[in-house]
Amino acid sequence: MMTKQWFTKTLFKLGMDCPTKLYYSDNAQYVDISSTDPFLAALANGGYQVGELAKCDYPQGVEVATHDTYEAYKQTQKLLIRDSVDIFEAALVHEGLAARVDILTKRDGVITLFEVKSKSYEAGTTQFMKSKGRALATKWAPYLYDIAFQHYIATCLFPNFTIESYLVLVDKHAVCTIDGLNSKFKVMSQGRTGGKVTIKKNLAPGEFVGNLLTKVSVEQPLNHLFNVENFEGLSFVEHIHYLASIDQSGDRTQGKIGKHCNKCQFYPKTLDVEQHSGFAECWTRELELDEVALKEPMVLDLWNFRAADKLIARRKIQLNDLTEDDISPADGKTPGLSNSQRHWLQVKKIKDNDISPYLDQQGLQAEMASWNFPLHFIDFETCATALPFTKGRRPYEGIAFQFSHHTVDENGHVSHAGEFLHATPGVFPNYEFVAELQRQLTQDSGTIFKYSAHENTYLNTIHKQLEDDTSIELHKKLSHMDFIKSITHSTKKSPQSWAGERDMVDLWELVKRYYYDPHTNGSTSIKAVLPAIINSSAYIKEKYAQPIYGAKDGITSRNFKDHIWVKEEGGELLDPYAQLPPLFEDISAHDTQLLFEETELSNGGAALTAYAKLQFTEMSDYEREALTQGLLKYCELDTLAMVMIYEAWREWCR
To answer: CA angle at residue 592 from 587 to 598, to 5 degrees?
Structure first.
């Protein structure tokens, strides 16, 4: 048994995603671009803190600390000799299958498995099954597969016991009963094995678990999974053993290809000579393409394109092979490019070998005519922590901890007008955040710009927090709420409806409708648009190739001095974000890059992770100051990027 290859829960989840990944994961030649730092991932989503909080309900619990599977199994079996026991990280092993259980309890002939997740749960509305009960809800399926794998091994190991299984989730509507709960949990990195939580102060058993976490039975979805669900003709149990046999044999089994392959961890964009791309191997085998063809722009590269799988099924893979009928571009409800027109523009640029940017000058000029100077460009950094900061707060309430603010006046003068960062451990920053934002933005009536819906959403959140908070002085409270309503519009979840007279202009929406540059490869992320703007705009190149940023007689800056943003390296323009110092000196450049990858409508993970480190890890004053300065620089560049986009458009429209 000691020499046997274990089919672990991690491998099972990988195989459920795609069986071919089991083959690639066993071969070091295939590049895996997923994060290699589990500590950062769990730190950012609160997994460590939630896991430790769940254990507080079992003060007599015994932890199986070893990482060796067989040794952990022996320790678990020894502990289970007791009539009653609570075990953390119990190891279950059966016929080559192996799983570690977050919390296992043994009581009076019943063994109960608890899988702890930092995912929020809303009692009464959250459903594990789809409406008609015929299938698992898509967003819950991975969690249910996880606990089902453990449940199956336990039923095999303990046939004379009743096996019960629960998900331990964060109760979205629970209210924290003490101040500074999250600051009581400090996380220490343990390298590649993850991290360990140290509780700074004793927590009374059950005092917080019953309040913030909820134990939800998964009996119904597991019954469906074991007795109804099928996986291409196999039952769930048969499918477990099928995946285990694939992994043990080392044979390559081809999974289904499609749009989902774009997010495959074995899809590297660059390769060294001796490395292999799992993605390329799958697609060349299935579609009879050579690897040269796969380097050409494909349907997977089309921005926000939902019909990719239909085209792939028809073997229409490369953008050069598409026709207008494949895209069916049509007018949208708003001025400028619709999504389908933008798709066709992207294809047409490829077919025509046209690398020039597209700009709807007339449309942009009409938008610009409605703007008032000075223009204000703002960017927020936010998070939603599982453990609340203060008494009376709920899990995953929005936290706004940082913003940057640039202005451009009527004469084109650019200034880094202000910033805010509040990262003191255990302190709720939102009201100070909005007070400072109000102070900076109410000096005039200039137009305010955001990038995506993020800023509007968070200001709506703070408006609701202020509305519900009875501890704030009424005059101050109403002033902040009125300010928020003046620069935002209500969201669908808001009980009120409003549209402020200075409602922020979404620069991201303007990018989508009026601007396209082939250098972005279809992305509308500001981190893709900025390098494209620099590459295409002679004005931006000339202006920011000079050391004017943070210069005495140049552009004012709070974090840079005499900085040159347009630089060349190896004959190519250097991405401004690549010029910034690393936020995390203790992780690889690859993992750092992953943290900055973002979708168009979500905030990147780097600032959130940095904030989590400031909140939850022990660090020296020097490390804290360095990380704080890094956050300020990154956020300042985000609003400067917005300014550069505006300046390039302004010059082109002239």
So the answer is: 155
Residue 1 has pLDDT above 50, yes or no: no
pLDDT tens string 562-581: 999 999 988 889 999 888 87
For 115-165, what is each residue's pLDDT tens digit?
Answer: 999 899 988 777 899 877 788 999 999 999 999 999 999 999 999 999 999
What angle, 0 to 180 degrees and rounded to 10, lies between the N-to-C axes of helices 526-536 and 621-653? 50
Instruction: Please state the separation of Cα 74 from the chain's center in Å.
Output: 38
Burial class (CB in 10 A: 0-12, 13-18, 19+), 38: middle
C-alpha 259: how far from chain center:
19
Distance, CA of 190 to CA of 182 (rounded, Å): 20
- Encoding tokens for residue 31? 């590049």
Q: Which amino acid is at 613?
A: K
pLDDT average, residue stretch 272-292: 86
- Report yes or no on 141 lying in a domain: yes
- Judge whether 77 and 128 are in contact, CB under 8 Å: no
CB 237 within 8 A of CB 222: no
Please, which residues have CB within 8 angstroms of residue 492's CB and are 6 or more apart in sequence?
Answer: none
Is the model's pLDDT at 588 over the cut of 60?
Answer: no
Residues with Cβ within 8 Å of 207's Cβ and at least 6 positions away in sequence, in order, are: 56, 177
Residue 83 CB partners (closer than 8 Å, separation 6+) = 106
The answer to whether 411 and 647 are in contact (CB under 8 A) is no
Handedness of CA 9, 11, 12, 14 (dihedral sign): positive
Query: What is d(CA 284, CA 329) in angstroms, rounded to the nearest whole number?
Result: 30
pLDDT of residue 176: 87
Cα–Cα nearest to 444, from 375, 377, 499:
375
The Cα–Cα gap between 360 and 464 comes to 38
Query: In terms of C-beta density within 10 A (0-12 exposed, 13-18 middle, 19 or more buried), how is residue 259 classed?
Result: middle
Residue appearing with tokens 């560049």: 637
Contact criterion met (CB below 8 Å) for 111 and 165: no
Q: Are strands 375-384 and 515-516 parallel, antiparallel or unpaired?
A: unpaired
Around Cβ 473, how many Cβ atoms within 10 Å?
8
Nearest to 458 by CA among 555, 383, 548: 383
Q: Which residues contact 419 (CB under 8 A, 6 or more apart)?
A: 402, 403, 404, 405, 558, 559, 632, 635, 636
Structure tokens at 356: 């020039």
**428 in a domain, yes or no?**
no
Rounded to whole angstroms, the Cα distance separating 308 from 280 reads 17
* DSSP H/E element including 283: helix 278-287
- Per DSSP (E only), the strands in 108-194 are 110-121, 162-171, 185-189
Last residue of a domain, one of 217, 234, 268: 217
569 to 189, 549, 583: CA distances (angstroms): 35, 20, 22
The residue assigned the tokens 């099954």 is 129
The pTM assigned to this predicted structure is 0.90
- What is the Cα–Cα distance from 362 to 643, expressed in whole angstroms? 20
Assess contact for 300 and 259: CB atoms under 8 A: yes
Helical H runs in 409-559? 430-441, 454-468, 474-487, 507-514, 526-536, 538-544
Residue 451 lies in a domain: no
Domain holding 55, by residue range, is 35-217
Strand 85-94 to 97-107 pairing: antiparallel
Which of 217, 251, 279 terminates a domain? The answer is 217
Number of domains in the chain: 2
Evaluate whether residue 536 is within a structural domain: yes
